[in-house]
Amino acid sequence: MNPIHNLLGLLLLSGYLVQDYWNLHWEQLQQIQEAFVYKQISGFVLMWFVLEQWRLFLLRSQQKMRQANKNLHLHRELGLVAPLLLYAHTMSSGHAYQVFLTACFLTLAFLGSVYPPAFGLRKKWLCNFWIATHVTLSSTLLLLIGVHVYVVYLYE
Q: In this structure, are residues 29 and 136 in contact, taking their beta carbons and an 8 Å threshold?
């Protein structure tokens, strides 16, 4: 992946964090986000995105390495838009477990943007640490999304 793409990912991530920290909101989008139907649609799009990102892991676990290698480019390119998709779903980090969910999501976006080989860092221990952290956070994110979906529909 081109380091410019990584920097773009970091820029989008920074933009999300800045607007959340300083409570800068796009009023029209915030009104749309309050609609139950919009929340569901944007939430399902975000969930589809996360599941699509898991395709790489599934291909690798099934030993379909040729397909996995082809999917790797898509995985990285899609990862760039993660902060935009989250912004379309919600402009704030939420409350309680949602803060952890948002932090996990954004940390994954950050990790994707600082993939060591993209910056010429090819130390085996660093790459292994990176992938272990990436997969662990991805698994945690799936669990938190499951909790979020359960809670949302339990209280609606």
A: no
Distance (Å, rounded) from C-alpha 50 to C-alpha 106?
Answer: 12
pLDDT in tens, 121-137: 999 999 999 999 999 99
- Quote the strand ranges of the chain, DSSP E: none
Q: What are phi and psi of 81, to 5 degrees?
A: -90, 5
CA-CA-CA-CA torsion for 114, 115, 121, 125, nearest 10 degrees?
110
104 CB contacts (<8 Å, ≥6 apart)? 137, 140, 141, 144
Q: Are 123 and 116 in contact (CB under 8 A)?
A: yes
Q: What is the pLDDT of residues 22-74, one digit of tens each?
A: 999 899 999 999 999 999 999 999 999 999 999 999 999 999 999 999 999 99
Residue whose pair of structure tokens reads 């975000």 in the numeric block? 46
Residue 128: Cβ-neighbour burial (10 angstroms; 0-12, 13-18, 19+): exposed
Whole-Å CA distances, 70 to 37, 54, 80, 129, 139: 35, 14, 17, 23, 22
Token duo for residue 136: 């662990």
